[in-house]
Give the backbone structure.
Amino acid sequence: MDWIPWPTQDTTLAKRAGVSFDRTPAGPICGLAGGFRVCAYHIDFDERPTCFVDVATRALAEAICLDLQAHCGSWNVDYAIAWDEHGLVVGSGRPY
C-alpha cells in the first residue's frame, strides 16, 4: 500500500522517520467520493494522522483498522481510523 504522509508537505521527514512531528490538528476528515480514507496515528501525536491511504471498499478499510501492522509497512503508527465520504467513522482500531 502506498501510504501518504499527513500533512503532505512533510513528506521527506515523515518517510525517513516513519512519523511526523507536526502537531497541527487535522480538522474534519472524509474519504474520497465513493471511497474511504484510512488514517494511521502515532499514539503520542493523535491531533492528526501520521499518514493515510484511500481505499475503494469498506471491507478493506475495516481490515486495515483491525490489523494495521500488516498493512502499514515501516510507518511508526499505532492505530487507524477509517472515514467514509461523508466523514462518518466506518472502522477504528483506536485503543481508547
User: Anything to note?
Assistant: The chain is about 20% helix and 25% strand. Strands lie at 4-5, 36-41, 51-55, 79-83, 89-92. The mean pLDDT is 85.
